[in-house]
UniProtKB/TrEMBL annotation:
One of its GO terms (cellular component) is endosome. One of its GO terms (biological process) is vesicle-mediated transport. InterPro entries: P-loop_NTPase, Small_GTP-bd, Small_GTPase. This is Ras-domain-containing protein. It comes from the Eukaryota. Gene3D superfamilies: P-loop containing nucleotide triphosphate hydrolases. It comes from Ascobolus immersus RN42.
Length: 218
């Protein structure tokens, strides 16, 4: 069952769609930094690891008639929280699985998350693979451990969107979420009374019991 909601304005042409998005990946790959850059256009050189999950929202205007709101669950990457993940990806419309381009093992972990999503999540879920910390993988002091061609070939085989991103420099962050928004089935969802207005409000909203501590060093 989908969590998507689409409403049409009184003019009959403007659309406001709302979708649930979850971020998954190993600890320290930069999930929270990606979200912080996307939602608030900010970056912290060091962020403490997420505890449990954080809930945030952000909107994207695709064109003059279409606005997409993401309800984002940023999950913790530590192994002890792995059993909680299905609570967050259940009924998600889309997912960003993040790995660190300077840590080869993090791509293996990302592949495991993709398999789990494909096996247990919404069968129509849109999955994007994001290789983060691109800023550390360029120039003479590059720390790259995962070749973009390798990750891209895997993403193509698995039917995933693929971007290399840098939360630090903002490279490809907006492009990542925009590409996801464009893949979502805006015209196939039944209108179910989305929350008021297609206002592109920025915000961070933490659920009761969630801790506003975010991902790390990315």
């Amino acid at each position: 069952m989908s969590n998507a909601r689409v409403s049409t304005s009184s003019q009959g042409s403007a659309r406001f769609a709302q979708f649930k998005l979850v971020l998954l990946g190993e600890s320290a790959v930069g999930k929270s930094s990606l979200v912080l850059r996307f939602v608030k256009d900010q970056f912290d050189d060091y962020r403490e690891s997420t505890i449990g999950a954080a809930f945030l929202t952000q909107t994207i205007t695709l064109d003059e008639n279409t606005t997409v709101k993401f309800e984002i669950w940023d999950t913790a990457g530590q192994e002890r929280y792995k059993s909680l993940a299905p609570m967050y990806y259940r009924n998600a419309n889309c997912a960003v699985v993040v790995y660190d381009v300077t840590q080869a093992a993090s791509l293996d972990k990302a592949k495991a998350w993709v398999k789990e999503l494909q096996r247990q999540a919404n069968e129509n879920i849109i999955i994007a693979l994001a290789g983060n910390k691109l800023d550390l993988a360029t120039g003479p002091e590059s720390k790259r451990a995962v070749e973009s061609s390798e990750a891209e070939a895997y993403a193509k085989e698995a039917g995933l969107l693929f971007f290399e991103t840098s939360a630090k420099t903002a490279e490809n962050v907006k492009e990542l979420f925009t590409a996801i928004a464009k893949k979502l089935p805006l015209d196939q969802q039944a209108g179910r009374g989305a929350r008021a207005g297609a206002q592109a409000q920025r915000g961070v909203h933490l659920q009761r019991g969630e801790v506003p501590q975010q991902g790390c060093n990315c």
